[in-house]
Specification:
single chain; alpha/beta; Rossmann fold; 6 strands; globular
Length: 200
């Protein structure tokens, strides 16, 4: 059986996509628990596994041990990249500005820029601490992904920058008509896998 491990991004929970079925989907929310992931991998050892990492989740997934990454038949990034800070992603000074000026109101503005209009049941202080930890401990990782989805209207990660990054890494990608929040365009998690019908 095919299963997706969906690696969520900064400040997100399952609240971000209440309209999508989570059948055959394991949602991994930050902060990622290595032992929990290992336990899930053991539970699914007889399944065909796919990793899908959204937004900052692409960075977090890239930092996982290779022994975990190698369990996945295909590793897909959506509207994100391993080098989250830097010339291909978000400029460090912009991340610092966002962190220093983060309030519940500015977080709602960030969600609006994402094209996300829902609510996340996560404490604001936890979201703030997640961003602080990310910024203060950032280290550029290697790319583990074999495919990338790129939103043409993404206002968090520039489409042009993401294309440059994945072309540099020689990773195939596909652009779609959508913003940073991709779940207006994709109506099922398995759509994110692309052509994987012959993987079983």
């Amino acid at each position: 059986m095919r299963w997706i491990f969906f690696f969520n991004g900064w400040g997100m929970t399952e609240d971000a996509f209440p309209h999508l079925s989570l059948e055959q989907v394991e949602v991994i929310n930050y902060p990622y628990d290595i032992q929990e992931i290992k336990d899930l991998l053991e539970h699914h050892k007889n399944d065909t596994l796919y990793a899908v990492a959204w937004s900052f989740g692409a960075y977090y997934f890239s930092k996982l041990p290779k022994e975990i990454q190698n369990h996945f038949h295909k590793k897909i990034a959506i509207n994100g990249l391993p080098e989250t800070l830097g010339s291909y992603g978000i400029l460090p000074k912009m991340c610092k500005f966002t962190l220093e000026n983060l309030t519940p109101e500015s977080l709602r503005s960030f969600y609006k820029n994402m094209d996300f209009h829902g609510n996340i049941s996560k404490k604001f202080t936890d979201i703030q601490e997640e961003l602080a930890f990310f910024y203060e401990n950032y280290q550029k990782p290697e790319n583990p992904f074999d495919f990338a989805w790129i939103g043409e209207n993404d206002r968090i990660f520039s489409e042009k920058k993401l294309i440059r990054y994945y072309e540099k890494e020689r990773v195939p990608y596909q652009c779609f008509f959508g913003g940073h929040y991709p779940f207006h365009f994709f109506q099922n998690f398995f759509e994110l896998l692309g052509d994987t019908k012959n993987d079983l």
